[in-house]
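REQUEST
  id: r-88c1
  op: predict_structure
  target: Sulfatase N-terminal domain-containing protein
  payload:
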Amino acid sequence: MATTALTGFSMMSLLSLGYLTWDLMSPNQVENDTGRTFGGKSPIPHPPHIIFILTDDQGFNDIGYHSSDIRTPALDKLAADGVKLENYYIQPICTPSRSQLITGRYQIHTGLQHSIIRPRQPNCLPFNQVTLPQRLQELGYSTHMVGKWHLGFYKKECLPTRRGFDTYFGSLTGSVNYYTYNSCDGPGLCGFDLHEGESVAWSHSGKYSTHLYTQRVRKILATHDPQSQPLFIFLSFQAVHTPLQSPREYIYPYRGLGNVARRKYAAMVSAVDEAVHNITYALRKYGYYQNSVIIFSSDNGGQPLSGGSNWPLRGRKGTYWEGGVRGLGFVHSPLLRKKRKVSKALVHITDWYPTLVGLAGGNESLTEGLDGYNVWPAISEGKQSPRLEILHNIDPLYNHARSGSLQKGYGIWNTAIQASIRAGDWKLLTGDPGYGDWIPPQMLPGFPAEWWNLERHTEPRKSLWLFNVSGDPYERFDLSEQRPDVVKELLARLAYYNRTAVPVRYPSEDPRADPLLNGGAWVPWVGDEEEDNWEHIYQKKNKDWKTKLKLSKSRSFFRRLNTRMMSNRI
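RESPONSE
  id: r-88c1
  status: 200
  body:
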């Protein structure tokens, strides 16, 4: 269970941050107040079957109840009959969201605070972390994962079946072809990536992944006895990540959409919607539904370059603006005490770990030291969330903002460093948060690439922003100059969190990972007996001034050339 860790905050500073909308309590007091009981007793007579569905790159505006052009009747119905989470936060890219879900810890506490785990990096979820499925196994659950892993696989110890899942069926890397399961990490560095347990699943090539993963979930439900053992299924869809691929029948209903990427993207979302409908039907058919909890979540913001939309939020995937970190989420369950609600409770993806362990009957000792909170009373009963703030991230390796400095951070924090935190109503960003424009839904078939760079640079380059995201969710009014008192408090919080951070794990790529050296597939390439060396932080070396000059001159050219497509590779 996380602690509030409000060291150094005065009562007045908490008021200024909007914290004191409720009495300050310790985490234990919060849980007692919300009626949550630990000590090995679940608030539900029998531990529920848990189905966690994670979609990839689905934007805030890419679900029926937020969108006017994408139809998701199954998801809309589940959300309407459950609890919609409209103050729910995730991470801006794939690996960080998955790591925080699986560990209940911020990236700074696992060493994964920079970028993603690339296919050739000898890196994975740290072995000292007890994962959510491992905790659920301890509590008697049968645990299964289907879909995208993206938490490293350089050793067999890293594989899902070694990290708490009884079975695994899916892809290990970040992006694969939906039919061939071919995954590339650069020119000539391609390999097959579909796995059954710890073996390569060559025989399933040619089947559309959304359908294939749905069939596997239904098979698990059909062959398990719901009365004998509680079930945890983590369905991590590859969809709707690029490449934009779907069966033709899903594209036809969107033939009126002029933007081709949006049309294909919408078709992929519809395929996911149908998959969720079929899984929900199977839950009812095989006797799970009445004692089940279905959680739906996106993993990061949408990528407008590939058909996604976060409108009306600012920014996109790979950024710390709301469009990158504000997630789609809802909970559907007959076990909810208050249904058909929209929840404004502050919830973060790290909260699922202690919440699900609590639902499974785990006691408080199983969630000590986590950054997440048990938010079930807030979701099920409408009580206030125990969460007061969210550390979006501190990334010391990301390109430092040229305009940032310790001086601009009042001597508290170097604003050149990419970081973001939300506390109460307030959100602070420092460094380079990423592309920060507001991108409306795509109505045209296409337009010049230069249009993507028409970001509103109406003021000198900045390295610090402050928003009241409760009153200004679209981040249009920067209040950093009007409220230096709040800025200083949040900079102090960043400094506090930074003192708790572990070294960044971001090793150089290993040529031994090349699929050509491993039978044509992406598989573990390092023996479990080979020792790791995590004593060093993998810093990006500073370029000399000539290199900097060349980069500066070529920057505008490459922006036009690839319109920052790097974020699309992630």
